[in-house]
Amino acid sequence: IRHKRVGFAHEKNGNLLFKFVDLVVHFQPAAFVIENVPGLRDLDGGEQLNVAIGLLSAAGYNVEESEVWDAADYGVPQFRQRMFVVGTRTQGCFEMTKKRDHISAGSVLEELPGPDVLNHETRRHKVASVSCYMVLNYGKRDQLGRVDRLTPSRPSKTVIAGGTNGGGRSHLHPEIPRTMSVRECARLQTFPADYKLVGPTARQFTQVGNAVPPLLAAILATQIAKAFFLLATGKLGFR
Fold first, then answer.
1. How far apart are CA 149 and CA 129, in angstroms?
2. How far is Cα 64 from Cα 155, in angstroms, rounded to an integer?
3. pLDDT at position 181, please?
4. Residue 162, number of CB atoms within 10 A of its CB
5. Is the pLDDT of residue 237 over 80?
6. What is the C-alpha to C-alpha distance for residues 80 and 14, in angstroms, rounded to an integer?
7. pLDDT at position 167
8. What distance in Å separates the CA atoms of residue 221 and residue 67, rounded to the nearest whole number?
9. What H or E segment, with its residue span, contains residue 16?
10. What is the mean pLDDT of residues 146-163?
């Protein structure tokens, strides 16, 4: 079932974008980044984003055109499209770094580092489910469990915010007939191996799935620094 995005009319979340705008206007940072799903550009006929950009422009920010980037194009082993809007109070011209070769999901899931891997508890499945997962082709969906088996030679499908009981969950491991652990999802998101997630397992999945991939965030921050804060090219290690 596809849920309709209700935009401004959503009682709880309809104005979260403007809470962020209020913080930017109040604290006046030198630069800001808005990140969201690409659908934000079309929400309420584009009204939400246009109003937000208007408020930021009126507060003295130069706001770049919104762009949609796929994390897989920047070294993240995962297809993940997100919209970004960059704004600054300083002069400069923001430009995203050039695209990189794709990294496969299988290459980062082959080995987990160290004997005591953090956040690597796996879900127990029924025998019938395991039997279905064993014969499911790469890239296909198990309709009963509503889970997708990853293709080892390609970037992962988008890591989702899920849980261990009902609702959303992780994808199927490309080579093992089970859903992936929090740690495996975190690897697809490029979290450091020693980064420990806390709380119930369901909330750990939520934390990982809702995050901007750290590698993509680092590249974006570096490009902002180069464009608006006059850091020497390559100083922070990204090209």
1. 13
2. 29
3. 94
4. 21
5. no
6. 23
7. 45
8. 15
9. helix 16-27
10. 91
Instruction: Look at 13-17, 83-87, 152-156, 165-169 and tell me which has the smallest mean pLDDT.
Output: 165-169
Distance CA(84)–CA(69), nearest Å, equals 8
- Show Cβ contacts of residue 49 under 8 Å, excluding neighbours closer than 6 positions: 17, 40, 41, 43, 66, 85
Both structure tokens of 112: 């987990």
**Residue found under tokens 């980064």:** 195
Positive/negative CA dihedral, 107, 108, 114, 117: negative
Amino acid, single-letter form, for residue 117: V
User: Which amino acid belongs to residue 183?
Assistant: R
Beta bridge partners of 34: 85
- Judge contact between 182 and 120, C-beta under 8 A: yes
Residue in the block written with tokens 């400069």: 92
Q: Which residues pair with 87 in a beta bridge?
A: 32, 63
